[in-house]
Design brief:
Blueprint (H helix, E strand, L loop, with lengths): L1 H31 L1 E2 L6 E2 L31 E2 L4 E2 L29 E2 L6 E2 L13 H11 L2 H18 L6 H24 L17 H21 L8 H11 L6 E5 L5 E2 L12 E5 L8 E2 L3
Parallel strand pairs: 8-10
Antiparallel strand pairs: 1-2, 3-4, 5-6, 7-8, 7-9
The structure holds zinc ion (5 copies).
């Protein structure tokens, strides 16, 4: 009888011990668990998604490819996917996970296909051809075009492009022949003028003057120095919105010059800010030399 009583209390004690251990486990699990940023549920420490609402919980990892990323990054440089599900990639506005179109700018969550080159884009300017894809992007472009530094930049980029098309003299004879031709042209023009009874004191010089290879290279380098200086002055400061920095930088990009985007995040060279995980830290366009292609982290 006494044994039986003892057995019962032993069983009870056992049950209580088990219960308290379960409680303990639950408590430590809650202490080590991952709190869902959206609904507050405490999930298992190694949970990937919230058990209640399905929110992605591992902030340091890309939900698309599993690469390690900065918790503040909205773009994965490893798999080139836009990863935020509650922020519009085009304008930076917050939206609901269920929204297919951004309530702020009206752009689709799935991206925009560039009408010019057919590239699928997550951001407001085409990462391939630079074309503005949204109304906001076109407005940004208009605003940037009003800036004096930008006007100067475009003028010098244009001059540089003209130098790029200019052919230098190949040889010394080449140069002499050209001078003879210039001389002949001058005499013909003077004769024609005399024929019409005019006095031609100044013969108009042809618009594009040929120069030697060395002179041309020097002229080009001078333009590139001026461009680099202007791009430095146009460097983009930090901004809380990565969308703003991407749009602003893309609007600034002058055509016809080989450029890369140098970010302040890792000082990496990207083909554009569309390939950077944290453009909100600012950055600038830099001019590329002839053999620097391999340094670009390309975003195809
Ligand atoms: Zn949740
Ligand atoms: Zn990824
Ligand atoms: Zn938007
Ligand atoms: Zn395009
Ligand atoms: Zn970067």
């Amino acid at each position: 009888m006494a044994d039986e009583k003892n057995l019962i209390s032993e069983q009870q004690l056992q049950r209580e011990r088990t219960l308290s251990r379960e409680n303990e486990i639950q408590q430590t699990q809650q202490a080590n668990g991952v709190r869902c940023p959206k609904c507050g549920t405490i999930n298992e420490p190694d949970a990937t998604y919230c058990a209640l609402c399905g929110t992605f919980l591992r902030t340091g990892v890309c939900p698309n490819c599993g690469s390690e990323i900065d918790p503040d990054a909205d773009f994965c440089e490893a798999c080139h996917h836009y990863i935020k599900t509650d922020v519009c990639s085009f304008c930076g506005a917050s939206f609901d996970e269920q929204d297919v179109y951004c309530p702020e700018c009206g752009q689709p969550r799935g991206g925009i296909v560039c009408p010019a080159c057919h590239t699928l884009n997550d951001f407001s300017f085409c990462k391939q051809c630079g074309r503005p894809l949204t109304e906001q992007a076109r407005e940004m472009l208009q605003r940037v075009r009003q800036m004096p530094e930008y006007k100067e930049l475009i003028a010098i980029a244009q001059e540089y492009n003209e130098l790029q098309m200019q052919l230098p003299y190949e040889t010394e004879q080449d140069k002499e022949r050209d001078e003879e031709l210039q001389d002949l042209r001058k005499r013909v023009l003077q004769l024609l003028a005399k024929d019409k009874g005019l006095q031609l004191d100044v013969v108009p010089t042809p618009k594009r003057q040929r120069v030697t290879k060395e002179e041309l290279a020097e002229n080009k380098n001078r333009k590139l120095d001026q461009l680099a200086d202007l791009l430095n002055r146009l460097a983009i400061p930090e901004d809380p919105s990565p969308a703003t920095v991407r749009n602003y930088a893309m609007a600034q990009r002058p055509a016809g010059v080989r450029l890369a985007w140098k970010c302040n995040y890792k000082n990496a060279l990207h083909s554009s800010p569309c390939g950077c995980a944290k453009p909100q830290m600012g950055g600038k366009w830099v001019i590329l030399g002839h053999n620097s292609k391999q340094d670009i982290k390309d975003d195809k």
